[in-house]
Hints:
The structure is a homodimer of 188-residue chains. By secondary structure, chain A is mostly helical. Chain A has helices spanning 9-28, 36-43, 47-53, 57-74, 82-94, 99-102, 106-130, 138-157, 165-183. The two termini of chain A are 36 Å apart. Chain A contains 9 helices and no strands. In chain A, helix 5 packs across helix 9 and helix 8 runs antiparallel to helix 9. The longest helix of chain A is centred in the middle third of the chain and has 25 residues, at 106-130. The A-B interface holds A 9, 13, 44-46 and B 9, 13, 44-46. Chain B binds a DNA duplex (30 and 30 nucleotides) through helix 1 and helix 3.
Amino acid sequence: MTEVEQADRRIQKTLSSLQDAFFELVLTYSYDEIKVSDIIKKANVGRSTFYQHYKSKDDILVTSMQGLLKVLAESIEPEDRRDDLLELMEHFWQNRQFAPRVFAGTARRQVIMALAESLEIRLKKLYKSQFISPTIPTNLVAHQLAEAQMVIIIDWLLGKGSCSAEAMAKHIEQTSKAMCKALFVNKY
Amino acid sequence: MTEVEQADRRIQKTLSSLQDAFFELVLTYSYDEIKVSDIIKKANVGRSTFYQHYKSKDDILVTSMQGLLKVLAESIEPEDRRDDLLELMEHFWQNRQFAPRVFAGTARRQVIMALAESLEIRLKKLYKSQFISPTIPTNLVAHQLAEAQMVIIIDWLLGKGSCSAEAMAKHIEQTSKAMCKALFVNKY
DNA sequence: CGTATTTTGTCCACTTATAAACACTTTTAG
DNA sequence: CTAAAAGTGTTTATAAGTGGACAAAATACG
């Protein structure tokens, strides 16, 4: 019930300018060859304005994917997330044109690390709620999960093996939850 | 050769937002029913921002037409302006859809007064260059000229009589210069 | 290899845009 | 006719965007 703080109109404009510019650039150039200078030039904002909102080029990438990664991270929780996952997979599939440019170079690692971070938070919550202390460090497990989730999605998007978005959603739901349950096997 | 002062990037964005919003509104609504509030809402800028750039709704109208009116005002000068006038008439004709909404209500008067003001400046220069002092007050003559120029253009745009843009350009060139020469008839 | 060039990230003083509050006028409706 | 609503235009303190300068890091290249 927290009052949602409306961002200043200028911030909204600046952020959408930057996001739009970034997406447009990714349509044409690979992530690695895009410079911050290109983004601010296309967005028509000052350099200092960019750094007021993002730490780096990686940051704008990760930030713009955070909504998507959240869905993946939540899939380890006991609740049913099939609908969200299906929607996500369909979105990925529709925008698979981006995949070669986004998941080729350094961006791949950035995205996975961001996902791992998001997963780690949720893992810790799960441990807490189950009154269990982890035997393997949580950050390692989070990274493992993140790689497992992303690698198959990336392979799928790059056309290394074809199946439906439904199948992918179901597979990720099942494997994620299974891996996670295994962590708490002692509990039972 | 004066260094052209580049406006701040924010000003450019704000002005084009406001101009764009204004034009879009004129496409749908008549000038008189458009509120300042509508313009700033569509442009997505704050109220105080609007008034930082324009005195009123009339001001944004007149400002956005000033480039066009300049061509008309200059047509009283001895120099050949046929090309500029032709271009202007073709522009008017292409955008004649605006005419009923722009030249119907109070806007008509605003535009004519702005044109008169522009004409008055040029008239005074002409008097000065000819070493003649006006017998009829310059503002009256300017208003007369403005009405003469605009009324035929408006009638034309509203479809009250049809002819080519070329014919209109030629007619305005001739009549404007003729009226103006008549002011200096004693000189010869 | 090293040096030249590009790009990054940070800083600053300054300008602009902002929301909110306000008195005022015009329009709308009851 | 008159109360309410909508719109205008101004004023404030504050937050955001600006360019320019800069050192440091990354990259290109001879």
